[in-house]
Amino acid sequence: MIILKLFFSFLQIGLFSVGGGYAAIPLIQNQIVDIHQLMSLAEFTDLITIAEMTPGPISINSATFVGIRLAGISGAIICTLGVIIPSFIICLTLSHFYYKYKNVNGVQIVLSSLRPAVVALISSAALSILTLAIFNSTKSQVVISNFRWIESILFIISLFVLRKFKPNIIFVILGCGIIGTILYQIL
Amino acid sequence: MKINKKKFPIDFKILWTLFKTTFIISSFTFGGGFVIVSLMKKKFVDNLNWLSEEEMLDITAIAQSSPGPIPINAAVMLGYKMSGILGSLIAILGTAIPPMIIISIISLFYNQFRENKIIAISLQVMRAGVAAVIVDVAINLAKKVLSTKRIIYITLMIISFILAYFLNISAMLIILSCLSIGIIDLIINSKKGNG
After folding, report:
1. The complex's ipTM?
2. Can you give the residue ranges of every domain in chain A?
3. Of A97, A136, A148, B78, which residue has the fewest beta carbons closer than 10 angstroms?
């Protein structure tokens, strides 16, 4: 029974969270903590911390975490499926129409004015994550004394390497992880 | 069905590359949907040449405006372009499996994980690399918009940036507004064409 409850909860979360992971957090809280009381608020806070610390989409992370804690591996799979199914159906339909009509002149004109906005949104996300990396805080709570030299230097070197040599991005990210961790241990 | 088969012959090499690439990207992506989309742009547009920059931006806008996790939405659309429905499923698997494995392992001993200093530090410093990747992508994309030399696009970009970064207006609202401007642009254009 709990599996079914979880499945439908996460199906709703997948269907109604428009705008990505951070939009999903209040919905997950509402379903799991408030309505079904499957987790305490403290556990839920831990879950969000871990979902943010680890790679991957936040809603997939939370779905897996809630599922595995409440119903084991099968719970994790069911919850993740719940989040994914609405995405799959809706985006498949949209893809079909997009690839069918994208070369129509009128569609091109409309899309052309959307692209600058997407570029702006990506730039804004870039600055936000940069702030997070070098001040370890969100952009609204930046404290200058939290400035981190190691991350700043790693960032500048990475950006230089990326623009100059166009390496595989995984090496850049892993390289930062390894060099940075060693530097923190030495200094 | 016949058309589908003709359009998307099952190419295991493409499916494998699709799975492998989405798997790797998903394993290294911290932060929100736009981060993963930047990595996808880097891999699928710059390295593999599977789709054009414009297509990637369109996919981003659609993925952002549809319900559900942005990386999954983008994976569905990207996979569909390469190999139809099968491609979508493969891309979803590639995107969903890494976080599922990582979180399953962590959930077993999450207190130790949360309190381990070395793990916390390595995750924190890796962000510097992720930030560099997305800044690099953003610079290239912004340069492209500037090079169109069309004042309407450059203005839209600058205004959208100010709204998103400084005023915290939701991405959804910004995309919808630009969509309306695009439709107005279309109407003006078609009137010109008729007259």
Report:
1. 0.82
2. 2-101, 105-186
3. A97
Residue owning tokens 């340069």: B143
Q: Do B157 and A116 touch (CB under 8 A)?
A: yes
Please check whether residue A176 touches B, CB under 8 A. yes
* Contact residues, chain A, for B129 at CB < 8 Å: 154-155, 158, 172-177
Nearest to B136 by CA among A151, A138, A136, A123: A123
Look at residue B46 and give its three-state secondary structure: helix
Residues facing residue B67 across a β-bridge:
A18
pLDDT tens, A7-27?
A: 999 998 888 887 666 677 778
Rounded to whole angstroms, the Cα distance separating B122 from A184 reads 9
Structure tokens at B114: 């949360």
Query: Is the pLDDT reported for residue B96 higher than 50?
Result: yes
Q: Phi, psi at residue B28, to the nearest 5°?
A: -115, 10
Among candidates B100, B114, B129 on the partner chain, residue whose Cβ is nearest the Cβ of A80: B100
CA distance B50 to chain A (A): 14
CA distance A143 to chain B (A): 17
Q: What is the pLDDT of residues A118-152, one digit of tens each?
A: 999 889 888 988 888 888 777 777 778 888 899 99
**Pairwise CA distance, residues A132 & A128, whole Å:** 6
Look at A114 and B58 and tell me if their CB atoms are within 8 Å.
yes
Nearest CA among B63, B54, B65 for reference residue B36? B63
**Cβ–Cβ of B81/A134 closer than 8 Å?**
no
State the CB neighbour count (10 A cutoff) for residue B109: 10
Mean pLDDT of B135-157: 91
